[in-house]
Structure formats: structure tokens, C-alpha cells
Amino acid sequence: MGDGAKARRLPRAVRERQMLDAAVRCFARHGYQAASMDEIAELAGVSKPLVYLYLNSKEELFTAVIRREAQALLGVVAEAVVDRSAPPDERLWAGLMAFFAYAAGHPDSWAVLSRQARTQGEPFAGEAARMRDEITAFVADLIGEAAREARGGADITERDVAALAQALVGSAESLASWANETPGVTAKEAAATLMNFAWSGLGNLMKSERWSPR
Predict the structure, then answer these.
(1) Helix crossing, 37-44 with 48-55: angle to 10°?
(2) Which residue has the higher pLDDT, 154 or 159?
(3) Looking at per-residue confidence, does 91 or 182 come out higher?
(4) CA distance readout (Å), 54 to 35, 49, 151
(5) What is the phi/psi pair of residue 11, to 5°?
(6) Residues in Cβ contact with 207 at an 8 Å cutoff, skipping those fewer than 6 apart
(7) What's the rounded Cα separation, in Å, for the pair 57 and 11?
(8) 97 contacts 191 by C-beta, under 8 angstroms
(9) What residues have CB less than 8 Å from 42, skipping those under 6 apart?
(10) In degrees rounded to 5, what are phi and psi of residue 157?
């Protein structure tokens, strides 16, 4: 049998993964609007009709890409912070390292999640927002845990925790994009920069040492 017959025998899950891998590269390189289904099919080594047969439309393909890449990122972060016996600062460090390592190791995936998904409107922005909400919930949990353990953290409100989590996640997203675009910046360096910036300030807050404008 020829190569075409062998290719047709590939399981659907394998063939679909090839299509999604190709789509990630294409969307990251060109953006959603300019990405070509012809190029995606060519990169995946399949026909364009087969891409449509499996994933129906360019919109559904892009949605599937966002969901898969978001779940992969969430998975590595969740796994990194799963040890609840570790101190909050160590769990936050582990989560940041996982986040920055994933963004650095999968630059196309990060480009799709951090830029393309958020700039194309619904339903894509909503998918990216759900990912961000889950990561923010991880961070809020860690900050809240640190506040409960801190001697002076009793005056930190739930609103404080939510605001701090939003600020830290926003900083992480911006720093990850900068690190990926700046030669020589490692994931560990980026994570350490944010950890030093954030945890020092959080430490003062836990001791009720708040900055206030004069």
C-alpha cells in the first residue's frame, strides 16, 4: 500500500492533534484573520477538506486550539502548586516557574493565548478569559493562604486578595511576553524577577505595613 493508505489509517485523535499543532503554528505566525486553512492543511500533511471534516470551520478550529493550549498551560500550573504542605511562597514560586517555563517552551502557544485569542472578540476572548480566571484563582488561593498564616495578615480582606491576584497574573502575562521577545531572558530569571517584586511587597502587606499616598 502507498503512503496515502497508511496516512488514512491514522487514528482520528492523532490526525486531529496534527491539525491542531499545525494550526497553533499558523495562527501564531499570521494571526487569526490572515491564517490560511490551506497552509494549516499543508503543515498538517492533510487535505483542506479533511480539516473541515474534522473541525468544521476556521472559527471552530481556532476555538479548539485555544481550549487545548489553555488546558495544557493550566495543567502544568495546577500540577506545580498541588503540594499544599509546602509554604505559600514555595508554591507560588513553583507556579510561576511552571507558568514561565511553559510560555518559554511553547512560544507559539503563548502567542495564541496572550495575543491572538484576546484581540479577535467573542467567542475567542471568552475562552482566554476563562483560562485567566482559573490561573487567578490559583494565585488568590495562595495569597489568601499566606495571609491566614501571617501574624499581621488578619486585616487583609477578600477584596485585597482578589486585587492582588489580578495584579500578579497581569504582571506575569506581560512579563512572559516580554521574556519571549527578549533574547537571553530565561524562564527562571523571569519568574525570579516577578517573585522578588511581588513577594517582597506581599510580605510587607502581611505585616500590615501598607504604603499610602501622602
Answers:
(1) 100
(2) 159
(3) 182
(4) 18, 9, 56
(5) -60, 150
(6) 150, 151, 152
(7) 21
(8) yes
(9) 22
(10) -85, 170
Cell numbers for 157: 480582606
Which residue is associated with the grid cell 530569571?
189
d(CA 60, CA 51): 11
**What is the per-residue pLDDT for 146?**
79
201: Cα separation from own chain's centroid: 24
Percent of the chain with pLDDT over 90: 52
Task: Take residue 179 and report the three cell numbers written for it.
Answer: 521574556
CA distance 156 to 159: 8
Check: CB of residue 45 under 8 Å from CB of residue 18.
yes
Residue 9 has pLDDT above 60, yes or no: yes
Is the pLDDT at 7 greater than 50? The verdict is no
Cα distances (Å, whole numbers) of residue 11 to 15, 16, 20, 21, 208 = 6, 9, 14, 16, 58
Which residue do the cell numbers 505585616 mark?
A: 207
Round to whole Å and give the CA distance between 143 and 146: 5
